[in-house]
């Protein structure tokens, strides 16, 4: 009987030792915390084009539009690079206010130097009406993502200027076609105006509910009938611009390089927990459990705010344009 007990104890000790040895030498890092891949969210779900059409009726210039798009609680919930922070949207005006037709090109940088067109807004004079058309980028929204509406060319009243604490005053025009220099945003990845700080992405259900108010307006799907028959033509310099890297969300019609980047990114993301990595050839080196997870914005390359609230980057250091204080 004692011999049987001895044998059982010996077997248990051996099995325990073998299990511990196997766990320590497994492909999975010891006690590693492995992040789950980002949810397969369609990029188009984060920026509602119908809502953009409604917002375009409220502004009369590119700088005002850019500010509205990058204010927390607005219509922007776009997160192309999958960091759970809302992407900064830059606006560039094109066309000529004196000609009676202008446009706003909306882009973002999911990675530094990688410019991705999101949508374009064109506004054309038609008597005392401003005919508005919004066209979404085909890679993000697919083909025929077009909406239209109209609004008076002149504002009924001027909106209130922002406070100094919110970044200061900036030009707010009474008319879409007020003669002026075209606005070209100096801001992009890691270099932001004083009023902006990267904020967290909203849950898609909450965002959809918030956008429902814009869907009950007069915004219609399809091309604007006046612009379709007009002979006025202006060229969008950012039309069809495509980021080859940095986009981790799903696109309706991605380019070959965008598909390759997303596939490679998915391969590099490990499964959660303590199990084996899904990636082939994972290192058997043991690693320590990280003490905390990063909660940074677009990555470690982002600059911290200075005492005046502005953001600076060496690549944009020569730019002197800002929103004012």
Summarize the structure.
By secondary structure, the protein is α+β, with helices and mostly antiparallel strands.
The chain-level structural class is alpha+beta
Give the percentage of residues in beta strands: 5-15%
Which strand order does the major sheet show?
A: 1-2-3-4-5-6
User: Major β-sheet, in short?
Assistant: 6 strands, antiparallel
Order of helices and strands: HHHEEEEHEHEHH
Residue runs with pLDDT of under 50 for 5 or more positions: 26-38, 271-325
Question: Looking at the structure, what is the overall shape?
Answer: elongated
Number of helices: 7
Distance between the termini: 88 Å
What does the model show?
There is one protein chain. This protein has helices at 2-24, 49-56, 62-69, 138-141, 204-211, 225-229, 256-268; strands spanning 90-96, 101-111, 114-126, 129-136, 146-152, 220-221. It has 325 residues and is an alpha+beta fold. The N and C termini lie far apart (88 Å).
Blueprint of the fold:
Blueprint: H1 2-24, H2 49-56, H3 62-69, E1 90-96, E2 101-111, E3 114-126, E4 129-136, H4 138-141, E5 146-152, H5 204-211, E6 220-221, H6 225-229, H7 256-268
Antiparallel strand pairs: 1-2, 2-3, 3-4, 4-5, 5-6
Keywords:
single chain, 325 residues, alpha+beta, 7 helices, 21% helix
């Amino acid at each position: 009987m004692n011999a049987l007990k001895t044998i059982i104890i010996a077997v248990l000790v051996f099995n325990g030792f073998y299990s511990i040895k196997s766990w320590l030498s497994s492909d999975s890092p010891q006690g590693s915390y492995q992040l789950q891949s980002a949810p397969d969210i369609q990029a188009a779900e984060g920026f509602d084009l119908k809502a953009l059409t409604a917002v375009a009726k409220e502004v009369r210039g590119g700088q005002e539009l850019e500010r509205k798009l990058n204010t927390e609680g607005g219509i922007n919930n776009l997160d192309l690079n999958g960091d759970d922070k809302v992407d900064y949207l830059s606006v560039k005006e094109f066309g000529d206010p004196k000609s009676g037709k202008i446009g706003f090109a909306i882009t973002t940088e999911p990675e530094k130097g990688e410019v991705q067109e999101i949508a374009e807004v064109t506004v054309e004079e038609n008597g005392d009406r401003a005919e508005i058309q919004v066209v979404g980028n085909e890679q993000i929204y697919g083909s025929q993502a077009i909406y239209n509406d109209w609004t008076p060319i002149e504002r009924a009243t001027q909106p209130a200027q922002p406070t100094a604490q919110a970044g200061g005053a900036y030009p707010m025009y009474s008319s879409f076609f007020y003669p002026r220099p075209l606005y070209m945003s100096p801001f992009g990845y890691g270099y932001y105006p004083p009023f902006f700080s990267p904020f967290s992405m909203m849950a898609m259900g909450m965002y959809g509910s918030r956008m429902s108010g814009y869907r009950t307006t007069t915004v219609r799907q399809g091309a604007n009938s006046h612009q379709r028959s007009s002979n006025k033509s202006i060229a969008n310099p950012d039309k069809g611009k495509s980021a080859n890297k940095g986009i981790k969300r799903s696109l309706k019609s991605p380019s070959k390089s965008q598909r390759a980047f997303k596939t490679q990114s998915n391969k590099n993301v490990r499964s959660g927990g303590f199990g084996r990595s899904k990636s082939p050839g994972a290192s058997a080196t043991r690693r320590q459990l990280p003490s905390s997870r990063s909660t940074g914005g677009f990555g470690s390359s982002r600059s911290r705010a200075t005492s005046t609230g502005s953001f600076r980057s060496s690549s944009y250091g020569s730019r002197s344009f800002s929103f004012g204080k």
